Amino acid sequence: MEGYAPAFVAHNVPFMVVSGLSPSENFGSDAGQQCCQITSEIPLINNGESQAFLKLFQERDGGQLSWNSKEYNGRNKFKIKVVGREYNLPPRMAQLHAPSARLSNSRDLSPMPRPTAHSPLSPLTPDSALFPDGLIDPEWISKHQNLVPSVFVSFYKFTSDPNLSTLHDNHLKTDISNIKSVIAKSGYKTKLIVALLSEGSILKSPEVEDRLANIRKATGLDSKTSLFFLPPQSSPVEIEAFVDTIISTIYPLCIEYYRELSKHSRRKRNRGVVPSLSASPRIGTTTQILSSQAWNVRYDFKLGVFAEFRQEMDAAIRSFESGYDILLSEVMEIMPSWSPRFIEARLLADVFAIRTLRCLLWNGNFTGAVRRWQSHRNRLRKFIDRKGKGTLTYGWEAWEARWAEVMAEMIQKSAIDFDDESMSPYLLPEKNIVTGERLEPWEYMHHPGYWYSLASQHQTSRRALAFAIPEEDRSPQTGKSPRNQAYDTYLCPDPYEEYPLPGQAGVDHSLLIIESLTKAIIEFNKRNQLRQVQELSIISATESIRRKDWDVALRILRPLWHKMSYRKEGWWGPVEEVGWALRNAAANAGDAISVISVDWELLHKIFVYRPKWHYDISKALDGIETIDSRPSVVIQHQDVHSFLLATYVFQNSEGKVGEVCLSQLAVVSTAMPASIPVTMSEIKIEFEGSMKPIILRHKGSDATNSGKYSHNGVTLTDIPSQTGNPTLAGEADLTFSPGQAKVFEFTCLLREASEGTATSATFSMTSKLFDLDFVQTFEPTAAPATWWTSTSAKKQLVRENPAAITILPKPPKMEVRFIGLQEQYYTNESLVLQIDFVNDEEIDAVATIDVWLLGDNVPPVSLSLISPDHMADSTTRSKETKEEVLSAFEIGTICSGASSSVRMSIPPIDVPAFYELSMKVSYHLVSDMETPIYKTAATQMAIINPFEANYDFSPLIHPDPWPSFFTHNEGDDTGNKVIHRGLSQKWCLTSRYFSFANEDLVVEDLNVDVIGTNGGIHCYATKTDLPEGGVVVSPKSLDEAKFEINSQKLSLDDRGTATLDVTLAIKWRRQTERSALNTTILAVPRLLVSSSEPRVLASVSYSAIEPFMIHFEVTIENPSNHFLSFGITMEPSEKWAFSGVKASTLQLVPLSRKSLTFRLVPFTRGDWIGPVRCVIKDRYFQKILKIAPTDGMRIDKEGIFVWAPPAEIEEASVLEDDTE
Amino acid sequence: MAAIPSIACLGVLGKNNNPLHISIFPSQPTNTPLRTPLQFSLLLSSTLDIFAARSTANVNSNGGLSGDFGLLHAIDERLACYGFETNTGVRFVAVVDVRGRLVTGERVYGGMGMREGEMKLVFKQMQRAYVRLLQNPFYEPDEHSPPGGKGGRKITSRKFGEEMRRIGENWMPGTIAA
After folding, report:
1. Which DSSP helix (H) or strand (E) runs through A216?
2. What parts of the sequence cross the membrane (chain B) (predicted)?
3. B151: chain A residues, CB-CB within 8 Å
4. What contacts A873, CB < 8 A, 6 or more positions away?
5. Are A541 and A588 in contact (CB under 8 A)?
6. Residue A1086 pLDDT more than 50?
């Protein structure tokens, strides 16, 4: 809205001056003028409170808020100016030149001959700029908005000192009265408000009330509306509330103040009298004075502005419309169109319209506002066509552009909320527009971006009209000639500036357009209308190019060219437009990369052919001087719409290692038919996976190869490279003519099992001036891929990604055999396994093996190679490892059809375990040493304990006599030999062992080894002999072995308990030839040998003479050093008859034993008889001794049973009774 | 003589935001198109912003408003864009020149401005023509808006073009949708 005085277009709010708080340099009206000065001798308040007040008032200043009712509510109702104690009010009346300069009331329009004073801004005052026939001066609004306050708030300190209070109050009274009188004298009706801030230490006293009443009475202030008192020690919240109270209390007064002013104007308007000039027009000036209609325009304007001060927008609209109508229809009609007053009036018409628009926007009449905007334009157009210089001038277009910008700025200033939920760029019409009424689309109010863009369109039209100015009018000399009066220069320059002659400075139309567009782009960007932004950016860049501002154009176009939606969405026209523009800008700015990229894209035949263009990519940089170094450009295919389209296809989706696979690179050119063929220096195809990159090099053009279709088989050679990335290279003709389809077919050997995917092809071009790389990545497309045959027939391949191949490993033809693998392995057995590798390949193979043994506590594995002649069994190489993995054991060359063997041995394992043995044979054929082939084999080995056993430990009667007290055995203690003098005891260890094996095992030997004794005892075990060749133990069977253990204490006096630790060793082997003998050692629970307590052992023997007779013998041993007496009772039984002691007492001397024999004749045969109830009781301890059975006897709960042999066997079993 | 609205351009935009068809019509009084073909295609492309914004707004507000989008925006005082979206994502855009036709006869239904829903008939006719195009077994919709979301070919059917021309030329404000 530049061009209009700011005061003319700014929004008006009530004006308030706050004094007494801060030393301010703001004195109001210019002090030089003769004016009314408000002064005061009371010092400023300067403490924390005053700062708080200052801040609060500044926060509430509504001078800069957006123009809408939402912002101007609550506390932001005033424009607030903070001043010191002094303030100057502008003079209300101009000073009269007449000698008797008496101030008089201007309202007093009595037709008295004496001159009357008028406002200095009135057209009646000779010093005024409006004198004698101007309409209104923006200073007038400025005066009310910035200089004459509606309310003058004066802050004073209210003293607390009782001694000073009277003096102080008197000062206050004088000061307030002074200010009042100054204001009254000035003629303004400014309200004076006094705010008293009581000092901190004031006490509550009735005096305060009296003092306040006194001041009020003396100054005539109204206690409710013009005298405010802040009690002492108020909190910040209270202070804020105080300020808000002041504002809300005085606001109605201020409104009343502006209403008074309105009334004053209305009265004058209604009077309908043209006021007389305050002085006669000076000699030499026109006697033109304002007509009564013009005075009405003036009054209407004032009425509207005061209504705006009161925020009564409807009233303001009414006044403005009335003034506007009179202005255009009556006042301007009679003005000469060449006069400056006509320009002023036109400006005022615009201001009327702007103010009306703002009031409409304020009220939410958006469609109404657009209509008003249009109607002002249309009315003015008609008027200018009729009265002015016509509307086919650049001046009119300049105004149209201005008018659109005014609307845009007004909408922005009003902060209208467009971003509602409907996400629409325009607002719906207000409610009072009838539904179904015909609305022009533009009447829906669009956001400012559209208005700025409209402005730019008018700027463009303005330029077109400006450029049509004939040359003779463009010279500054003709500037003031009458000829130039034909041009409308309302708010725009003269023709010689508008379109200057070459070499002269003037208007830069492009810059104006760019400015408007930039503002529009910001608005569109805010609302995410990115395509609209692109469109405007193109125009803006074109204008920059026009100004030869290459860098700016480049800055816009380069990102646009890369990111624009048009390319992705297939809008080729805009793409082309941007492309050519960018090329133009880049060529001039020396941006070689952009030039080459654009040239590459523009070769596509989809764009419009330009006959004068060379269409040769190699000439892209010809004629561009500003490039320093040789540019190197990389173009990604997704960034451009490329005319070269490469696809890569494998013939099959799967292949095996060692096989040959066919693949094709097809390059289709859709270049402009008239373009020069493009020659690439090389094409590099990159793969993902193990495949080597392929490089195709240009080998020179081939004349026969220029048809529409060419099919080239390319032989690839392996090129090892220093950098460790071997490549395959080939040669072909890499010239691509427009419209040509070229297919390069490759044969390559698949080497390694993996997934292979062709990822990209890079076309490299080396030109005279630059290097170019065009990178095309292969992406799977929805359309089926094509396989081209040499006859240009096509085959469609329907695969997910035809540029991918799955390379399967070569099926190995190597057999791994485990020889001698047992079904079950046992602990304590060394594991030996022979593994044969049979080469079924047609070619000799070189192999190595890796062996893993997996499980807990893996034993070391050793491998040894068995030389081919099995007989010798000589180990050529062996390897052993402590680790789980035994890797890379070389087997060497295995001839085709032959085999090699390896022996694997694992040492015996003590505990049961489960192992997994896996093996990988890696080999390659001597014909192709690069392709490894793998074969794996695995087996499981479970290792279990072959035997488990349980044990029975029972006493036997030792046959040796006990030592006698009466025999003195003189031992020769001289030697080293230890003589055992203790009692000898004999025991029987019965072991029942169970076979857990799942096959027959041969037990060759069983042995009990004494591994430790405890308690001074000597002991040895006798062994039961097994038959020669051992015993075959079948699975899940129980065998029994008995061992006799003799023990003897070292000393006869040692009566302590002794223990024995023995183990059972089973020597066994598998029931096969040449099987090794293994020893399994089973632990036996600790055996307890006691020798201090008396014990009773029962034994049985069968008489040789009397076949029916059974000798039942009870041996009582007394190993103690006491005399013991035992009671013996033998109970009779129905099952046998017996002879012997029925009941008796036996006395045993220390260290002696005694046997009692009973002869039993059983009544049944071939059966266990019993229980034999023989009770032996220690007389002294009254304790029944338990009878321990020995061989041939059985014991259970009831007692001891004795075997009565059947009659036949009786004779054979002869066992002599062995008595003492 | 009065200037009433006429159609300045009809556009069919594919699912991938690609142009499928553009017909341009001359405006009075010069009887030439108001803008260049490039400007019209920029103009059509710009409507996609509003289609996108409205669709998001519709999804957000759960309003299943498919079909008539009404006024998309007015470019300036003469040109305004109206839009319609089919349920397969094809968009029809009618660019109306508010003063594109001069009439002298007394049977003037319209006048300045447009009434709401006045473009419905145009869109209905365009949709009918498009459906007829789809019924042609040689028309492959996927070629024109490939599923990958990038570009697509234009409609080349002469019949469809003629149909569009007829719709654009015959439309008058005030013709009520049948």
Report:
1. helix A206-219
2. none
3. 568-570
4. A866, A867
5. no
6. yes
Question: How many domains does chain A contain in total?
Answer: 5
How far lies A307's CA from each of A121, A135, A266, A359, A1058, in Å? 20, 19, 12, 10, 127
Residue A969 has a pLDDT of 60
**Contacting residues for A500 by C-beta, under 8 A, at least 6 apart:** A474, A506, A507
Selected residues 66-125 of chain A with any CB under 8 Å from a CB in chain B? none
- Which chain A residues are within 8 Å of B46, Cβ to Cβ? 529, 531-532, 535
Q: Say whether both A795 and A827 belong to one domain.
A: no
Tokens 């500037």 appear where? Answer: A479
The CATH number given to whatever domain includes residue B160 is 3.30.450.70
Chain A, window 452-471: residues with a beta carbon less than 8 angstroms from a chain B beta carbon: 453-454, 457
SS3 A564: coil
Contact A794, A913 (CB under 8 A): no
Burial class (CB in 10 A: 0-12, 13-18, 19+), A469: middle
Reading the block at residue B147, the tokens are 């599923």
Residue-wise pLDDT for B157-169, tens only, equals 999 999 999 999 9
Q: Which of A530, A556, A529 is nearest to A541 (CA)?
A: A556
Tens digits of residue pLDDT in B41-87: 999 999 999 998 888 776 666 555 557 888 899 998 899 999 999 88
Measured between CA atoms, how close is A200 to chain B, in angstroms? 59
Residue A389 forms part of a structural domain: no
Task: With beta carbons under 8 A apart, name residues in chain A contacting B53.
Answer: 423-424, 527-529
Report the domain count for chain B: 1
Domain that residue A842 falls in: 814-917
Inter-CA distances, A92 with A106, A143, A294, A955, Å: 9, 10, 22, 145
pLDDT value at position B176? 54
Nearest to A172 by CA among A189, A186, A159: A159
pLDDT band at A336 (very low <50, low <70, confident <90, very high): confident
- Does the model's ipTM exceed the 0.90 cut? yes
pLDDT grade, residue A713 (50/70/90)? confident
